[in-house]
Structure formats: C-alpha cells, structure tokens
Amino acid sequence: MELPLILVTGKNGQLATELQRLSEKFAQQFRFVFCDKEALDISNENGVVQFFQQYKPAFCINCAAYTAVDKAETNQQQAYSVNADAVSYLAKACSKYNTVLISFSTDYVFDGTATQPYLPDSQINPINYYGYTKYMGEKLALANCANCIIIRTSWVYSSYGNNFVKTMIRLMKEKNAIGVVSDQFGSPTYAADLAFAVMKIIITLNTQSIKTIFSGIYHYSNQGIISWYQFALAIQQNMQLSCKVNAIATAQFPTAANRPAYSGLNTEKIAQVFGIQPPEWQQSLKQCLQILKN
Q1: Spatial distance between the Cα atoms of 100 and 83, rounded to a whole number of angstroms
Q2: Domain ranges (residues) in the chain
Q3: For a tag site, which of 97, 110, 185, 190 has the least CB within 10 Å?
C-alpha cells in the first residue's frame, strides 16, 4: 500500500525548510512533496486543482504566505491574493480530495489590547492589513474545508531564512549599539519546534477515521511572554556579543504597519487536544543559536 502523501507549500520559507529537515525521520510513514511557487503557484486556482488531481495528497501543510507586514499596507492586492484567496483555493481542493489542510495564521489578527494570552476564540480585531489578510485566510479555509486546522503562531525564527534572530546577530556584529522596541510583548516561536508539532498533529490525525472533529483554530508558540528588547538581549548574551542593546519605545521606531502592543498566545488547546507542550522560549533560542554558531 502506498504511503500517505504530505504536500508542503512555500518550500523555501523557514517552516517548510524545518519540515524538510524533519521529513527524513518520517520517511517510513509518509511521502512528501515540497513545492515552491514555480512547482505550485497557490494563487492560481486552476493550477491548484490540477496539482490535487495528479497527487491527491492526504495532507496539505500550507507554509506559503505573504509575510512582509509593512509592505502589505501598500501591496494590498498581492498580500490578499496569497494570504486569503490562495488559501480558499487550497481549502476547496482539500475538500474535494478529502485532504486535511493545515494552514498558519498569526498573532497579528489581534489588536493587542489584552492583558492575558489570547485564546483561539478571543475577539479578532487586526490593526494592520497583513493581520486582516491572515484573518480572511482563516475564515476562507474553515468555510471551504471541513478537514481544516489553523495554527496561529507568533515571532517565528529559525536558523534558515530571514528573521529577527539572524537580523539581530548581524546588526550586533556591525554596530556598537542598537535600539530595540521594549513596549511590544509576545512569544517567540522556533520554527523547528512548530514543524515537530505539525508532524505530531499529522500522526494523530492519520490514525483517525473521522478527522473533522479536530478541525478548528489552535495556538502554538514557545512558552513565556517577553518584549522584543528582552529577546534581543537574550540573543546578545547567548552569542556573547559586545554590542549595547538599548530599550526604545514603539513611538521612536515608526513603521508603516501598526503592531499589537501585546500578542501573547494561550496554547492550552493544542496541549489538551494533541498533547503538544511547547518548550520554553529560552531553551529553543539556545538550540537555534547553537546551530548558527556551528
């Protein structure tokens, strides 16, 4: 019997790259197809339909996304096309071929006025266009596919790709002092941890005859809520860099898109349903920095 096929979109991103690395461990249980935009342009509905017709994947992990938060304010059409329309095309194809869709959303669907970590069913109120497109992607995915899991995550970093951790290391090596925002709070997420969580979900679902009972929105981030400044400080200390890290206010660092002041995510649901306990952020950061050092 042929092994179940897992389709992964957005092949060159942080999460898909971590999944690719992890896939070798699951080669006895699953087949994998990793696609970049050239292999599968998810914003082309006909292309999506033809791809599903050919491959009939058991699972689709949608790692493709428009993630340039500030550029999304002016590049609205492209952001909406990738983060909302394309997700609906995938959801419809998944529905037709009985494929489980796992797609990702963001802490930026919230307005940041909370004082406690946001629950999966907390009030949505994005304060930037990127957050709005991700919210629409959630809605369209759930509306068009009964076998759909949305994972909201935050502050994603990895030893691959472009992210806050790698930018900080580069700046700290180039400069004597840097300023980092200290009044925005959230939780970092190591993409390698998230990739492992996704595979754990797939293994659980693969043994279930009725998968729709697991559908819905979940939150995943590493444990602990910190500011970007505290995150930068931890990077500086772990890497033993001499650059001085100064705390600055959001007002001193204007950006095209507004950011939520607080976007901690409550991860209890994913722990209860799938037995997934995200590690503490410090522990995961050390793992990532060790890879970067090597």
Answers
A1: 18
A2: 5-162+188-222+266-274
A3: 97
Strands 100-106 and 31-34: unpaired
How far, in Å, CA of 128 to CA of 18, rounded? Answer: 28
AA letter at 79: A
The rounded Cα 6 to chain-centroid distance in angstroms is 18
Contact between residue 182 and residue 229 where contact means Cβ atoms under 8 Å apart? yes
Report how far residue 201's alpha carbon sits from residue 214's, in angstroms, rounded to the nearest whole number: 10
* Active-site residue identified among 118, 130, 160, 218: 130
C-beta of residue 225 within 8 angstroms of C-beta of residue 187: yes
Record the pTM.
0.97
Q: Is 229 a catalytic residue?
A: no
Q: Considering the chain, what percentage of its residues have pLDDT values greater than 70?
A: 100
| Rounded Cα gap, residues 211 and 100, in angstroms | 8
Phi, psi of 289, deg, nearest 5: -65, -35
CATH of 5-162+188-222+266-274, one of 3.40.50.2300, 3.40.50.720, 3.90.550.10, 2.40.160.20: 3.40.50.720
Q: Does the pLDDT at position 73 exceed 90?
A: yes
pLDDT per position as a tens digit, 212-228: 899 999 999 999 999 99
Dump pLDDT digits (tens) for 240-253.
999 999 999 999 98
Contact (Cβ atoms closer than 8 angstroms) between residue 278 and residue 264: no
